[in-house]
Amino acid sequence: MWSGWQEKNNMAALKRHQKKIGVGGAIITPYAKRLVNQVLDSGRISYGPMLRRFEEEFARVSGRKFAVSANSGTSALQVAFHALKEKDGWKDGDEVIVPAITFVATSNVVLQNGLKPVFVDVDPYTYHIDPKKIDAAVTPRTRAIAPVHLFGMSADMDPIMAIARKHKLRVVEDSCEAVGVRYKGRPVGMDGDISCFSTYMAHLVTTGVGGLALTNDPDIAVHMRSLVNHGRDSIYVSMDADKGLTGKARFDMANKRFSFVSIGYSYRMTELEGALGIAELKYLKKNIKLRQRYAAYLLKGMKRYEKFLQLPTRPADREHAYMMFTMVIKDPALFTRDEIVAWLEDWNVETRYMMPLINQPVYRKMFGDLESKYPVTARINHHGFYIGCHPEMNKKHLDYILAVFDAFFKNKGLIS
Q1: What is the pLDDT of residues 123-149, one digit of tens each?
Q2: Would you say residue 157 has pLDDT above 70?
Q3: Cβ-proximal residues to 103 (8 Å cutoff; 6+ apart), any chain
Q4: Helix H or strand E segment including 173
Q5: Are residues 196 and 305 in the same domain?
Q6: 214 bridge partner residues
Q7: Residue 412 carries which DSSP code?
Q8: 219: containing domain
């Protein structure tokens, strides 16, 4: 067990002065405050120039033609699948291939659209859907693949797109955790029919709440915008639609305010989130570089623990924004996830599990115990966790985290 009294005493002193190091947060810059005040001074909160600008800039960053704002990444995914189901005539019970590791929303929206998620195991090092296992999951009822770009890095999209073309499947990319990074030189989220992003707290672009659905198909873009606005006739989606019109044309446009062509949703974002989003995009590259620098520092400092922990892996063909700093315990006989997570939390280092899905209580109730079918996923579900790696941190935080890990392994007698 850990013996150095002086070292233990020093750690206790450090702990007293260290507030909890969270897994993420938000920095409200003076530029963001200025844009928000512009919105407040305008008296215009509903969809307007700030949101349009945010959508246009977000689409440009992601290599897309159209962006439709929504009140969450989940809402963006919901309208994406809804639009494709209506456009392509999918039937209830048709199937969508989903990775067995992802945030629950990816699979939930499939179910909420009357479709069936078909799970596929993930790569043991990147934690993304394993392209080599997708073909076996395709059936005559498969309609789409939903690859997820987890933890700040792209899934392996080239083989996924090849499978989609082979089977004539749609692709909806859940890009909620990877805006601004590249895969083989191109922006994450530009390959599929639709890509969906989140701007929720602690994401790479943060507006408090919010999300976007991106596409290059103008018809799909119009349909999704209608669905976000209660299914309203797409000719009228904002209070500016009748600007400059007179007479019968103005009356006809006004009449469309109460013409609904789909069973839609109230998923709208406000101008305030648009203002925050514009400011966040301005600093996105800088913030990703900070995350990468901090991750490199942690990777170097934790190299001595590699025989105990599987640290983040980045294939050479893609960038990593390190939205989280992931770890998987290699030998649970030495220590369990519960032990190390409890230690970190007790020493004010916040943790989370690595997106467990198929073992969630509601999924066990619906599908039974699936983990034996997905061994890589099962290992991550029981032995994976992550800590923060974000711009609100600094070198003092990083050194403290490394000291806490060092104390854990010394206390377990695994290092001297």
Answers
A1: 999 999 999 999 999 999 999 999 999
A2: yes
A3: 148, 174, 176, 355, 357
A4: strand 170-174
A5: no
A6: 67, 195
A7: T
A8: 30-280
